Amino acid sequence: GKLGRYPPWPGKIVSPPKDLKKPRGKKCHFVKFFGTEDHAWIKVEQLKPYHAHKEEMIKINKGKRFQQAVDAVEDFLKKAKGKEQNSDGKGESKGKKTPSKPLKILEEDDEDLSALKDPSEKDLTDSDPEPSAIERLGAGPGSGFKWESSVVAPDLFPFRPAWFSLLTAEAVCWPRALEMPVKDDPHFHHFLLSQSEKPASSMEPISKRLKIVEEVTGSTSIQAADSTAINGSITPTDKRIGFLGLGLMGSGIVSNLLKMGHIVTVWNRTAEKCDLFIQEGARLGRTPAEVASMCDITFSCVSDPKAARDLVMGPSGVLQGIRPGKCYIEMSTVDPETITELSQVITSRGGRFLEAPVAGSQQLSNEGMLVILAAGDRTVYEDCSSCFQAMGKTSFFLGEAGNAARMMLILNMVQGSFMATIAEGLTLAQATGQSQQTFLDILCQGQMASTFVDQKCQNILQGNFKPDYYLKHIQKDLRLAISMGDMANHPTPMAAAANEVYKRAKALDQSDNDISAVYRAYIH
């Protein structure tokens, strides 16, 4: 979908969610974009037939995910053609089928459906929605929108001209650029569409949203998405970027920063981890202090509160390289008290501080699909816009320093507890003579279906515990969340129980395995 300045993307018309308001404006259709979880209201004059522009668009868009989207279109068309042939065979005895009329390529000055309609058919004015808003669906684990088997809902289009019969296979389209940029659209808002079935496609959105949405809580989100899908249309900041810590998460982040054209200087406690990034164009910093002094913005992503403190206040630490105006961004998942301490020491030297822990995994980090939770200096958050767009699909600004740490611990507390419960269910199924695979199949058809559940359970059944998120880190996060609950005088019995299971898993030497290895705590 061509939203604003971004390249076109193949899509198909689907029925919109029933609870969507009917916006005013020109006639348009609700479009699902292939290979993504993005949907948008696209004006009729901004749609182009797929086949007529396929080769042109493939030449322009060389990205891997764009090719995957095209493959998804071709697969959809192939299946649709097969269904048509089966239907034709069954209906031969009832008479000849009325030949279909080809879709006309829409021109720039087409204002309505007249270019596509059979003149003898009734106008769609009363039944066709007339929205002008662009709706963004949540694309995190557990969300998605399965493609409808019928492209257009019967209740939305009771009057079907001849060309409508072609929509299933032919109205795969390239939406044109919107006349009103996303950031200027007063109707823009994003929403999460819950679903109970596994998504039928990958969850990568197709465009980097530049819109900032102010919510009632005062938090802000910058909608962003996969950078590969838009073929590097991010304009990287000209500020020099430093990055400290090249672990599971940091490696993917740095790789995406480099791919999007940022100037990056790296440092890691184990120096050989820097070699790959030096080959990709990064510069090498000898100490954290040197990186901070050389760069305008320095990011840090390390394992725990102690490592975060040592990196800043230890020998040759970041603090020694901080000068007035220098920015420091703490991406590690730590407790709010550590964030407060780091913020104070950085700002005491005239530096600017932002915390920005990330929700995700190694896979999501590599794909540039993390969710960034930021808090602290708002101007630093805005200065880092291109960095956050390169590394994540969405970033949220949550106010004063410490808020992001609190939110991150709550999220990881829920994830850790959930993973332990899934492992408990799998082992209980086995203990009671039930098939674990059948348990997973049923689970993935219900309301808890998600990529997270599917991947982790499959890993367990295959005995594959290669770390995507370290078990020792989720246990650390549970411990910190429980402590935060104690300080707030709020009970956390579920987290406390899960924490004990992870502690047992650590005692069984599972610390450096994936969080799904908590399963082994139940079988030993």
Automatic annotation (TrEMBL):
GO biological process: transcription elongation-coupled chromatin remodeling
InterPro entries documented for this protein: 6-PGluconate_DH-like_C_sf (IPR008927), 6PGD_dom2 (IPR013328), 6PGDH_NADP-bd (IPR006115), GLYR1_PWWP (IPR035501), HIBADH-like_NADP-bd (IPR029154), HIBADH-related_NP60_sf (IPR051265), NAD(P)-bd_dom_sf (IPR036291), PWWP_dom (IPR000313)
Any Pfam family the entry gives: NAD_binding_11
Ranges of biased composition (kind: Basic and acidic residues): 79-95, 114-125
Places the protein is found: Chromosome
Region (Disordered): 1-24, 79-141
GO terms assigned for molecular function: DNA binding; NAD binding; NADP binding; nucleosome binding
Domain PWWP: 1-53
Recorded GO CC terms: chromatin
PROSITE patterns in the record: PWWP
Main location per the UniProt record: nucleus
Keywords for this protein: Chromosome
Family membership: Belongs to the HIBADH-related family. NP60 subfamily.
UniProt name for this protein: Cytokine-like nuclear factor N-PAC
